[in-house]
Write a structure and sequence with these properties.
Distance between the termini of chain A: 50 Å
Structural class of chain A: alpha/beta
CATH topology of the largest domain in chain A: 2-enoyl-CoA Hydratase, Chain A, domain 1
Number of domains of chain A: 2
CATH topology of the largest domain in chain B: 2-enoyl-CoA Hydratase, Chain A, domain 1
Number of strands of chain B: 10
Structural class of chain B: alpha/beta
Order of helices and strands of chain B: EEHHEEHEEHEHEHEHHEH
Strand content of chain B: 15-25%
CATH class of the largest domain in chain A: Alpha Beta
CATH architecture of the largest domain in chain B: Alpha-Beta Complex
CATH class of the largest domain in chain B: Alpha Beta
Number of helices of chain A: 14
Oligomer: heterodimer
Largest interface: A-B, 62 and 64 residues
Number of strands of chain A: 10
Helix content of chain B: 25-40%
Radius of gyration of chain A: 21 Å
Largest sheet of chain A: 8 strands, mixed
Shape of chain A: globular
Helix content of chain A: 40-55%
Chain lengths: 328, 285
C-alpha cells in the first residue's frame, strides 16, 4: 500500500518513505538483512526533507500550516500535557466545539489551556466547524481565562484557525463584539499568558486567543490578517494569484519574528510537525516550560503594564513626513 | 469636381442633462435631487426620506465638536510601507492616490475638542481613504486619542467607518486590533467613558475591536455593521441574506448597540451620555 502525498512538493518524500516501508516489509517477511539499503534510503530521505522544508515558498508554507496530518490542539493536550479536564460552554448560549479548553498540567503546574480544534475527517470537521469558532467559542475562551485569573493560573492558547466563521448566526450573535471583548479583556488579564500558533493564525478569529504576554509560532505556522486566497481575490481580483498574495503578506514565522510581532519561533522536526509528532511535542513542551518559567512569578500589575507597552508599540508609521517610526 | 460636398460641421451630441456635480446631489434612498448647500447644512441626511449619506470625517467633526473647539493632533502622520507591499499597484501609490482624493494623510482625523461644553478626545474615520481601512497609522492615532483621554482625564468619542483591516500592512494591521483594544482596556480601568459611533459601513477588524467596545454604542440609521461582509456570508451559507441583515436596526434588535440615533441628534445624545456617566463632569450650579 502506498501513502498518498497531500501536497505536491511532498511527492518525492512520500516515494522514498514508501520504498523504505516496502523494503522493511520484505525484509521481515524473508528474514533478510537490508540495513545497508535502509541506511542509504534514510540518508536520502533526510537530505530531501531538509532541502524541501528549508526552501518552501510562502504559499507552500501556508499549505504545510494547513497540513491535514499536523497535530491539532487535542493532540497536544495528550502529547505535551497531563491531567486534562475539559470545561465546556459559554454559560450563555451553547458549547462551541471549534474551540476547546480546560485544565491541563505541565511540569507539575496547573494551566488553563485553550485552543482552536480542527477535525480530521468530514464528520469531525462538521462538529468542529473546520476550526472556525462562533461567538460562543470566544466567550467560552474568555470565561476560562477569567477562571485562570481568579485562581492564579497561567493561560496557554494554541492558535489554529482559518478565521472567524462568516455565517448568519455568528453575525446575529455578535462575533465582532465577542472578538473585541476578548482583545480588551486579554490585554488586562492579571495572570501570565502565552499563545502558540500551531498551524493557521487566521485573522480576528486567531487574534481573539492571541493577546498574550508571549507570542510563539511553530516554525511552519503562519499568522495573517487575511488568507492568501481572500487577499488575492480582493486585491488581484483572482484567487489564483494566492502565491503572490502569500508572498506579499509576510505571513511566515520568520517574517513575524522579523516584524517584531512574534517573540519566538519554535523549531519543528525535519519534514515538519506532521512528519514527527513526538518531535514537535518535545519542542513545544520545552518552549512552553521555558517561557512560562520566565513570566510565571511576575507581579500581575507589571505583567499587564508590559503587555500594554508591547501591543501599543506595534506598527510602522512616519510622523509629519519624517522617517518611519516604530518597528519596521 | 465633386458632386457632393460633405458638410464639415461635425455632429455634436446634445449636452447630456448631467447635474452640475458641485451644486446638486442625488439621494441614494429616494432619488430626490437635492441642492447641495441645503444637503450639507443637513449633514448629509436627506430631508425627504431621512436616508443618511456618507459624509467626510471633517463633517463629523463639525457635527460633533463645539464650534472652534477642535484641535487636530498628528495630522501629518503617514503610513510607512513596512512590508514593501505591491499587488497590482504598489502600496505607496495607493496611499498617494488616497491622499490626493481626500486631502488627508490617513483614514482617521483625531484631536481634542468640546462636545456640548464637555472636553473630549475625538477620533473620526474617513471611509473615502482606502475604504477607511485600519493600518498602523489608524491604529496609532486611535491609540493616541485614547492616551490623550487618559492623560487629560476626559471621555473618548470615536466615529467609525471602515471596511476592516488594511491588508497591505499584513499582520501589523491585524495587530492594530490588539493595540487599540489595549488602550481601551486602560480607559476601562480608569472609568473614563468611551462612546462609539458606528456609521455606514463599519465592518471587519474595526468592528471586532474598538467600534464594538464602547461603554455606549450608537449607530446611524441604516448603517451596515458587521464583522464578515454580506457577500462573504452569502458565499458561505449559499443563500441570500434577508433584507436589513447587518443594518444598525438589526444590531439594535440583537442587543449589539444601545441606540440607533439620527445623525442630527448624535451630538446631543453624546452630550447626554457623557453627562450621565462621566464623574469628571460637574453640572453648573
Amino acid at each position: 500500500m502506498s501513502a498518498t502525498p497531500h501536497l505536491a512538493f511532498e511527492r518525492d518524500i512520500v516515494d522514498i518513505e514508501d520504498q523504505i516501508a516496502k523494503l522493511r516489509n520484505l525484509a521481515s517477511k524473508h528474514g533478510l538483512d537490508v540495513s545497508d539499503e535502509l541506511r542509504v534510503l534514510n540518508g536520502k530521505l533526510e537530505v530531501l526533507r531538509d532541502q524541501t522544508y528549508n526552501n518552501l515558498d510562502p504559499m507552500e508554507q501556508v499549505q504545510v500550516a494547513r497540513h491535514p496530518l499536523r497535530p491539532y490542539t487535542l493532540d497536544y493536550v495528550s502529547g505535551v500535557f497531563t491531567d486534562w479536564f475539559e470545561l465546556k460552554g459559554d454559560r450563555r448560549y451553547r458549547q462551541d466545539e471549534a474551540i476547546v479548553g480546560g485544565w491541563v498540567r505541565l511540569n507539575g503546574e496547573s494551566i488553563m489551556l485553550i485552543g482552536h480544534q480542527k477535525g480530521r475527517d468530514m464528520k469531525e470537521n462538521l462538529r468542529r466547524n473546520f476550526g472556525m469558532p462562533h461567538p460562543e467559542g470566544y466567550r467560552k475562551a474568555l470565561r476560562l481565562m477569567k477562571l485562570a485569573e481568579k485562581f492564579g493560573r497561567p493561560v496557554v492558547t494554541l492558535i489554529d484557525t482559518p478565521g472567524a466563521y462568516p455565517g448568519f448566526g455568528a453575525e446575529e450573535r455578535g462575533q465582532a463584539e465577542a472578538i473585541a471583548t476578548n482583545l480588551r479583556e486579554m490585554a488586562r488579564l492579571r495572570t501570565p499568558s502565552i499563545s502558540l500558533v500551531i498551524g493557521e493564525g487566521g485573522s480576528g478569529g486567531a487574534l481573539a486567543l492571541g493577546v498574550t504576554d508571549r507570542i510563539l509560532l511553530l516554525e511552519h505556522a503562519i499568522y495573517s490578517v487575511i488568507s492568501p486566497e481572500g487577499c488575492a481575490a480582493i486585491l488581484w481580483r483572482s484567487a489564483e494569484r494566492r502565491h503572490e498574495a502569500a508572498r506579499a503578506l509576510r505571513l511566515t514565522s520568520s517574517d513575524l519574528l522579523r516584524l517584531g510581532i512574534a517573540d519566538e519561533v519554535v523549531p519543528e522536526p525535519p519534514g515538519g510537525a506532521h512528519a514527527d509528532w513526538e518531535g514537535v511535542m518535545r519542542s513545544v513542551r520545552e518552549a512552553l516550560i521555558r517561557n512560562l518559567g520566565e513570566i510565571a512569578n511576575e507581579e500581575p500589575g507589571r505583567l499587564v503594564a508590559r503587555r500594554w507597552a508591547k501591543y501599543e508599540s506595534l506598527g510602522a508609521w512616519a510622523e509629519d513626513g519624517a522617517e518611519p517610526e516604530g518597528r519596521s | 469636381m465633386a458632386w457632393f460636398k460633405r458638410q464639415k460641421t461635425p455632429l455634436t451630441a446634445e449636452g447630456r442633462r448631467d447635474l452640475p456635480r458641485d451644486v446638486f446631489d442625488k439621494c441614494g434612498g429616494c432619488g430626490e435631487i437635492l441642492y447641495r448647500e441645503r444637503f450639507l447644512r443637513n449633514f448629509g441626511v436627506c430631508p425627504e426620506c431621512r436616508n443618511h449619506l456618507r459624509i467626510s470625517a471633517g463633517r463629523y467633526v463639525e457635527l460633533l465638536a463645539d464650534p472652534g473647539s477642535f484641535e487636530e493632533a498628528n495630522a501629518g502622520m503617514t503610513s510607512a510601507d513596512p512590508l514593501g507591499f505591491a499587488d497590482r499597484k504598489p502600496y505607496p501609490d495607493r496611499l498617494e492616490e488616497a491622499r490626493r482624493k481626500t486631502g488627508r494623510n490617513e483614514a482617521v482625523v483625531a484631536g481634542r475638542c468640546r462636545i456640548e461644553g464637555i472636553p473630549a478626545s475625538l477620533a473620526v474615520m474617513d471611509f473615502a481613504f482606502i475604504g477607511g481601512s485600519m493600518g498602523s497609522v489608524v491604529g496609532e492615532k486611535i491609540a493616541r486619542a485614547g492616551r490623550c483621554a487618559l492623560k487629560e482625564e476626559t471621555p473618548l468619542v470615536i466615529v467609525s467607518a471602515s471596511g476592516g483591516a488594511r491588508m497591505m500592512e499584513g499582520a501589523f494591521s491585524l495587530m492594530q486590533m490588539a493595540k487599540t483594544s489595549a488602550v481601551l482596556a486602560r480607559l476601562h480601568e480608569r472609568a473614563l467613558p468611551y462612546v462609539s459611533i458606528l456609521t455606514d459601513p463599519t465592518t471587519g477588524g474595526v468592528t471586532a475591536s474598538y467600534a464594538m467596545l464602547g461603554d455606549f454604542n450608537l449607530a446611524e440609521p441604516g448603517a451596515l455593521i458587521g464583522f464578515a461582509g454580506p457577500r462573504v456570508i452569502e458565499e458561505t451559507i449559499k443563500q441570500a441574506l434577508p433584507p436589513g441583515f447587518q443594518s444598525a436596526e438589526f444590531l439594535e434588535e440583537h442587543g449589539m448597540v444601545d441606540s440607533v440615533v439620527d445623525r442630527r441628534e448624535l451630538k446631543s445624545a453624546v452630550g447626554q451620555l457623557l453627562r450621565h456617566s462621566w464623574a469628571g463632569w460637574k453640572p453648573r450650579a
